[in-house]
Amino acid sequence: IENKLKNIDGFGVGATVSAHYQFNEQWSAGLLYRSQMTLHAKGDAEFKKKGLVDPELIGLEDCSVKASITVPDSVTGGVAFSPVPELTLEASATWTRCSTFDSLDFEYSNILGERKNKKDWRNTWRLGVGAEYQATDWLALRAGFVWDESPMTEEYEDYLVPTSGRRIYSLGAGFNLNESWTLDLVYAYIDASGRSYQKNNVTHTENSNAKPGATHTFGFSVGYKF
Question: Average pLDDT in the 32-46 region?
């Protein structure tokens, strides 16, 4: 049975709290907390029968589906150092309590009913460093690196996050076009490690491998000062 979910949407409420302290002209530090969010989503489920089908699922029909997902909370801390006014060096660390994501459950309106998918993720770290150089009054150059840990455990690994970790390299530039308008550009290269899977009847994985992946992303933002 192939299961396809579509038209899924949901709503959740969360909060962020942050603080920043400037020790002197060279040193500063910041702290950020993002709260948990519970997303209640609903949509439609389509089913396609392929090959031999469990007799209990012969009458399986397309239906509506509901799901509740807990987005974990996180704490981020960072330090910035400016050896000269034109240069800023930064380092940050984010701890995410992914252990709150212990199950991904769906409630179908057909004969499937409620289906539980155990996840049992582990808490993770995300470490990053970056630099910004104010080359001229109108141009700032930026670069950064992030190491991102995978939250999946070997016992409950599945194909939801098919990597054992990521490294993100980024370059950017900021332009002061005039007294009011600014333009920021960024390019990021995401280098995702592969992952080896063992046959697991609980998470429905087979003896298989996820190949390393590469992603190129581009972004921009435009600002206006009143």
Answer: 90
Among 198, 200, 194, CA closest to 214: 194
Kind and range of the H or E run holding 160: none
For residue 51, what pLDDT is reported? 58
More confident residue, 105 or 183: 183
Q: How far apart are CA 146 and CA 93, in angstroms?
A: 9
Is 79 within 8 Å of 32 (Cβ atoms)? no
Residue 56's pLDDT band, with cuts at 50, 70 and 90, is: low
Contact status, residue 204 vs residue 190, Cβ threshold 8 Å: no
Q: Which residues contact 207 (CB under 8 A, 6 or more apart)?
A: 197, 198, 199
Top-confidence range, 22-31, 95-104, 155-164: 22-31
Whether the CA torsion 56, 59, 61, 65 is positive or negative: it is negative
> Which residues have a Cβ under 8 Å from the Cβ of 51 and sit 6 or more positions away?
none
Owner of token pair 């990521």:
166
How far is Cα 80 from Cα 129, in angstroms, rounded to an integer?
10
